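Notes, Module 5: Reading structure tokens.

Key idea: the token line is not a picture. It is a compressed description, and you learn to read it the same way you learned to read a sequence, by spotting repeated patterns. We will look at two proteins. The first is printed below with its tokens.
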Amino acid sequence: MQTNNYSITTNLFKQVRLSLLVSVNSPRQATALKPILAATVAKIKQQFNYYDRLFSPEKTDLLMTQLSAGDLRPLFKNQNFQKIYSIATRAKLMTNGYFDAFYDGRYQPTNLVKGWVVKQIFAKLKLMMGPVIKGGLIEADGIVQTAVTSGVTYQWPVRTEDALTKRDLLTSYPIQNDSLVSVTAQSLRRPQSSIKQLVITDQQMLKAVIWATAGINAGTGKFLRLIKQHQLSGLLVDRALGVIWFNHGQLRSQQAS
């Protein structure tokens, strides 16, 4: 059976890329699948639009703006806000305070919101997977979630580039049913961090988001201890030491930048 990759790019919730792994027997079957793929993409777009309207901090009439200003009343009005606030609270405890949704006195869980949205959308996408759609990938600003159906050996080639140069390739992760999160000190507005860029891979999307943020806040020395303690996998780019790899808590290699 021939397997084709269909990639659809959108700009609905920041930068969002949706890729579908589709199995076909013939070009005629591929043509017949177009309405099915179009309907699938339309449903995903609808979901992203819904969450964009709900969470966008750029729209002053929304509940998210109230939360950012320190007004916690929206937590009692919207169940989704309650869930994210609860996750942020638990994450702060889990990371010894290095993950904190409050910054400069304002509630700003931006990456956590993006990760949570991708998680919700991906749950909908997985329900659409089956005999025709064999796998899916959603990427939003460095937050990647992938899946394939049972028995499929395909691995999504997730490229991780140097976020500062936008050219150099750090690594390429072949993953099937996992998530990858890549953040920088610049994107988190933490210029003082000794970690320029941090990549975390994990089966749990939100866990990867939380530890990627926590690592930038902790800095290299403290985060290396947390890597071992919590059995984390990924890589970090230290300003002085270069690239440090880690896999299930074990440091694999170190090279100068």
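Here is the second protein, with the sequence above and the tokens below, as before.
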Amino acid sequence: MRNKRSNHVVKALSVAICSTVLFMASSGIVFADKNDLKAPKNAEKISYNAKAEVDSIQTFLLDSIASKDNKEIANSIAAVTKKNLTATTENISKLLKGKWNSKKGQAEVKGILVKYLLFTQKAKLGFTKIISEGINDVVIPSDLSLKVKSKINLDITGNSKDDRGVKFMIKSLKIVQNLVTSLNQENVVTLKLNNLLVPKFEFNRLENYPFVTSSVTEVFQTMNTLPFDGDFDSFTSYYTKYFDTCSIYEAISFLYLLKDNNIPYQLALE
């Protein structure tokens, strides 16, 4: 049975609409021409099993946020100085274990910490914030579209089967949403429905909140193998365009991903 935790927007609006759409679609009742339910012919072709080279700092970030010791790692990074660099390197390497605790791994951690010391203050705060928050509490529903999941995983981790990609994206959205919600009731994601009830997602560029988005941009800019330019605006544009290529079923599955992680969205009719 689906997780019933939801905010008032999801409970009042989305469940009824999405249930209706799914029921009618599965019952063979057609809202739109079949072409409307398929990705456009010129849509991006995705190699689900391809792997892109991910640099050490991006791998370090992903391993840190997925670690059970993520908070301690974040605190160690935040406290690093030139004087305690060696001791901090050894501590973090032990916490991460595996390849990071080898001689080569420790050298990589040290190099990453040296780069961290050169970050701007916003970049440092964003970097340690995402690690401290962690991603192990993110829920990925079993009915999330394989195409959507594989695409996001590949974009973020370089591996379509590495679910830390989806978890990283959702946790990033949640952090931004929480920051914006504390200031204003504005949502990061908008779900638009046309007269055929075909959903379309739009990621809010949050132009009125540069102090929020700039922190996310600083984190993205530490990740050198993302498929979009390293800023929040490019991130929102990229995924808005991507979901335009998705079918109704794929889009609805992403909606449930948001719902299961208590991320609100705005409902709008075109």
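Summary for the second protein:
- The chain has two domains: 53-134, 138-269.
- Residues 138-269 form one domain.
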